């Protein structure tokens, strides 16, 4: 570099092009005689295509105080970070009316009705249920080389219509096609089901219930009875050793005392105050406000027991993502098994889909081979014999069926892969204390708790169970 004194300027741009550094290489004996000119610095920057976000104060400082910057890299230009887009989401306007209706109601004579405190989210035919809000594309940034940096676009929300609903032409809104109750079923599909209400207990006077819709029970479900619903099940009382099965969610206000009888199964969520000696399975979440005692509880994603008591003692709990409670175990070291991080049903489904896709691909290949033969005969002779024409029609129809099956399988494969890929690290969280006697399983990794832990989160890092203190 020309000028007074011997020196060399090196400009380096970071890989993301959001920052440029400058390094003044100079020998100690040349420092006192060194004279840097601003134009030389700008010339070197432009030579390296750094044209944006140049820090003029650093350029001036470098010229005035070269000793300060000698043989040490300094930031000379800073770009503008792109602003990532916000994810799209689904609004549910019908829920606003439900919120307004919750809580005890005052009767005409001034008394308060404490028996009907649960609002059933009933909707009317034609009512707007869901509205898709599009993702934001974000704001571009600018590199130090002057180039625009594309932002990461937000992820679009998917609106999934189920039964008894209709969507608009743009598929951005869902409306109720009948009067009934909203229920979410497999893969978060939104449905409206008719509602069947029981104004007391499910006992010998009512019998077992199997309803294509949502069931609301304003009393208890007694030992030995069965309630099945294609929508949700709402129980304002308690559930004993009964069988409840809902494709949607199950809410039990007073709790479950099963005495190791019956089972509670929901395609989506199960919410209750306590679970005791019960067998409970939810496709998504199990949310308990008080306690889970000596029960078998499974959840596709999370088991949460973090109310004022929030205690889990005994039994076996399995969740795909997380098990969280205020207290695990007791001072007597009661054996309790916690298993997280495994979604066997999803992985098994993915293997099955891949096998089915291979069969479909092979059948498509054979079908296309047959159609190609028909086309060659047609091009050679100008027409097809009657039997070959029938075969061509049959092969064409077969191909349409296979294409439709292929698209369905590929779409489901993409959903399953996204769900498995999007898994956050499986965790077990004790927000107050975890006592000895707990057996943890993270996939195939087993860890035993031999002393007390306070406010601790357990996760697997680099093949080992590690802990972090919860704030």
TrEMBL record:
**Sequence ranges assigned to domain Flagellar Assembly Protein A N-terminal region in this UniProt record:** 10-186
Q: Which InterPro entries match?
A: FapA (IPR005646), FapA_b_solenoid (IPR046865), FapA_N (IPR046866)
Q: Which domain of life is it from?
A: Bacteria
Q: What is this protein called?
A: DUF342 domain-containing protein
In its UniProt entry, the species of origin is given as Brevibacillus choshinensis
